[in-house]
Each structure stands twice: as C-alpha cells, then as structure tokens.
Specification:
single chain; about 140 residues; mainly alpha; 9 helices; about 65% helix; globular
Length: about 140
C-alpha cells in the first residue's frame, strides 16, 4: 500500500463527513511510527533485507543492527546512507530523517543538493559519495 502524501492526507481529513470517518482516517493514515518501524515498513515495500541494505549502505554491521533495533541513535549521514541503500525516495528519506530527530535534506545547502540529486536518480551510496567528492563536498561517513 502506497503511503499518502501530506497533501493527500490533508485533503482526505478536510473531506471527512463525521467523527467516525475522521477516526478511521487517523487510525489508517497517521500512525506514529518510530524510525525503526518505518524503516522496516520501507524494507518490506521495497523487497529488501536488512543484511542487503546494511552491506550496500557501508554502515558497519553491528552498529547498523543497533540502529535498526532502536538501541543506538544514528547520525544524519548514517540515516542518509541507509535510506539510499534501501532505495528511498526523497520524501521517504525526509521522513526517516525526521523520525530519527534529524534535519531533512535542504536544497539550498550544496551538500544536501548533491544528495537530493543522487536520491532522485536512485544511485548507490558509493555513487553518491563519488558525486559528493566531485563537487568538493564531504562524503557520507
């Protein structure tokens, strides 16, 4: 099931006929997920495994599992690398960053602009780091 965008959800909420319909919408579409739960949902949607994503992200395996179990709080670069490896869209990556308590990608920051460009093209973490290096920006660490 594809997740509704914020605008779609807002439109649905505004068109609710009564409190029962509103309650149904809220129960279905506004679940308060943790970073870990949302990431697991993304993995299922994209048909990827934790092992595969951790390998592709370059995040050290033990540390990565601690992040995915909620035992460690990830840094921004780790969340970005995990999101790229999972094949996240820009919106999905933004939500992952928010759920981790981190700032979303901001197109007016040159490093973030390169990352947005890479995510929009579905490239790997290695390719993203190559783009960052070519643009003289710090690579994902």
């Amino acid at each position: 099931m594809k997740e509704k965008s914020t605008n779609e959800l807002l439109k649905t909420l505004k068109n609710a006929r009564d409190l029962d319909e509103l309650a149904s919408i809220v129960a279905d579409d506004t679940t308060d997920l943790s970073f870990e739960a949302y990431f697991e949902r993304l993995l299922k949607q994209k048909g990827k495994t934790r092992v595969q994503v951790l390998k592709d992200s370059g995040v050290e395996r033990t540390y990565g599992y601690q992040i995915l179990r909620g035992e460690r709080r990830p840094g921004r670069d780790k969340v970005i690398a995990l999101g790229i490896a999972a094949g996240c869209t820009d919106a999905e990556l933004g939500r992952l960053l928010s759920l981790a308590g981190l700032s979303r990608l901001y197109s007016k920051r040159s490093r973030d602009a390169v990352i947005i460009f890479a995510v929009s093209r579905g490239v790997s973490v290695v390719q993203t780091n190559e783009m960052l290096a070519q643009m003289h920006e710090p690579i994902l660490s």
